[in-house]
Amino acid sequence: MVRKSFLSYNKTIWGPLELVEKLYPEAEEIGASVRDLPGLKTPLGRARAWLRLALMQKKMADYLRCLIIQRDLLSEFYEYHALMMEEEGAVIVGLLVGLNVIDANLCVKGEDLDSQVGVIDFSMYLKNEEDIGNKERNVQIAAILDQKNYVEELNRQLNSTVSSLHSRVDSLEKSNTKLIEELAIAKNNIIKLQEENHQLRSENKLILMKTQQHLEVTKVDVETELQTYKHSRQGLDEMYNEARRQLRDESQLRQEVENELAVQVSMKHEIELAMKLLEKDIHEKQDTLIGLRQQLEEVKAINIEMYQKLQGSEDGLKEKSEIIAQLEEKTNKITAAMRQLEQSDNDLLTQTRTIAMSLVKYASSDTQDQYKLVKDISF
User: Which residue range or ranges hold the RUN domain (predicted)?
Assistant: First the structure.
């Protein structure tokens, strides 16, 4: 039994079936597919579609078992003495397990599940004892019942087709009104586009005129710029030739300067070599001068010694006087040699000074003067 609500009887069974989604998560797919089916407008049609999908999945017993266990939830939809609230409900769910043997392939789309199913008359299968002997009457009754059932089935199909045709007519009328509205909008858009096209054409003509004028002006400017470019190019060619000639002259001058620099470098090396030789000669003469001075000191020491001996020995005076004369001659010769060495040292010093002065002048003079100074130094 269905439970009575505040306003009227709640005759739909879609409410308890929606609870299965919360209790059994795998049933959410069935509920979503039922809601997405087109043409289902009543809860009864949704319940029929749900039952068919559950039969095809072979899980109707499992879904209803989850629902039977939660009796506190079922109490919102059924009275306490209803079949689903009693123990017989669990028995019925247990019997539904046998439906899993059947491979159900039921059509859900395109079926009229919202309308009431026609009543099946089973009177033709019932027999009374009074009508057993009257076979002809039973045959007639069977034929009449068959015709009645055929007419009812045909009437039901015609009603379904009429309802579908009504729905199609309504949809066509709605689409026709939409198309009329869209046609009016399209006409308005066409008129606007024609006005915009006319405006764009007029603007295009103005732009063409302006561009032609601009092209003429730019053409005159380009011609004048071309003439100025030609004149400037001639001037640039002349400047390029002049710069090229100057570059050639400067390169030749640079080559000459490099050659002179190489000559000066070689002359400088020769001067350095001559300076080294002069320094070596000066050192040697200084060494000889030192040796002569040592010999002179030795001779002086001998003279002093001999003079002392001369005073001590009067007998050998004559011999010693001769020796003294000889020694004096040697001393005179040594002094003369020393004077010559000193003169040569002075000459060498003057030569080194002149060479140093000439080097200073060489560093501050031109190439020709440097060449002359080098020749003077070499001589």
Answer: 1-111
The closest alpha carbon to 59, from 21, 85, 13, 89, belongs to 21
Convert the pLDDT of each residue in 310-327 to its tens digit: 677 766 677 777 888 888
Choose between 4 and 75: higher pLDDT: 75
pLDDT tens-digit readout, 103-148: 777 777 656 676 765 555 555 555 454 544 566 777 777 777 777 7
Checking 15-23 for CB contacts under 8 A at 24+ apart, the result is 15/43, 15/76, 15/77, 16/67, 16/74, 16/77, 17/46, 17/47, 17/50, 19/67, 19/70, 19/73, 20/63, 20/64, 20/66, 20/67, 23/66, 23/67, 23/70
- 370 vs 362: CA distance, rounded Å: 5
Contact indicator for 359, 252 with CB cutoff of 8 Å: no
Residues 60 and 63: their CA atoms lie apart, in Å, by 5
At which residue do the structure tokens 């031109």 appear? 366
Task: Look up the pTM and report it.
Answer: 0.33
Neighbours of 27 (CB within 10 A): 24
